[in-house]
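Pasting as-is:
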Amino acid sequence: MDSTERFSTRVEAYVKYRPGYPAAMLDFLASNLDMGPQTQVADIGAGTGILTALLAPRVQKVWAVEPNDEMRGAARRMLADVGNIGWLHGSAEATGLPTGSVDLVTVAQAFHWFDRAAFRQECQRLLRPGGRVALIWNDRLMNTDFLKAYEEGLHAYSGDYEEVNHRNLGEADFRTFFTGEYRLDRFENSQLFDLDGVLGRLNSSSYAPVVGTPAHDQMTALIRREFERHAVNGKIAFNYSTLVYSGRV
């Protein structure tokens, strides 16, 4: 499947159940990457606008670049009242933005889908002198018995979890992408779900088994069983380390 279409059937779940980003991470972008009221940001692979919405109040303009029509459409509807977002049907490798037009490029949950060499060239074209790139992921932790079981279930029942996991990226990939020094910063993040929320969170992932298949039935049964065992006051925590790789290209 074309990576830009992987989420078309999962937009509603993505909007409702995907984690946001902690305020401490946005403060870091402001203090360490010079993101401020005059900044022009290109948010590449903007998806349903989860990060775009958090950037907009802090900067002059966010250009939200997203090739998937369903995801971009959902974002535009939700953020229709935000006046400083520009929407572009473009890809990471061909954004459609003018040369030298932005101070910061952000990518949330998407860099592992890109043609990295072509995206690097596009960043070099887009960024003003001194501009930087921030590659961001919410990395789901396995620091509770439930989260360990959930991870084991994905390995057992998802056909392509190993292939599409962002954890496949290594330091060599980041060294190749960034010019000179880059840094990795981590921020705590979490979500609290009831059972329906956990099932929704599963279905927001591109690698989740397709609803109606035996694999989906088995994964759902595992979630119900482990939820029953580990929920506290009817809730389960999904814990993340929000990772930010930042530098120049």
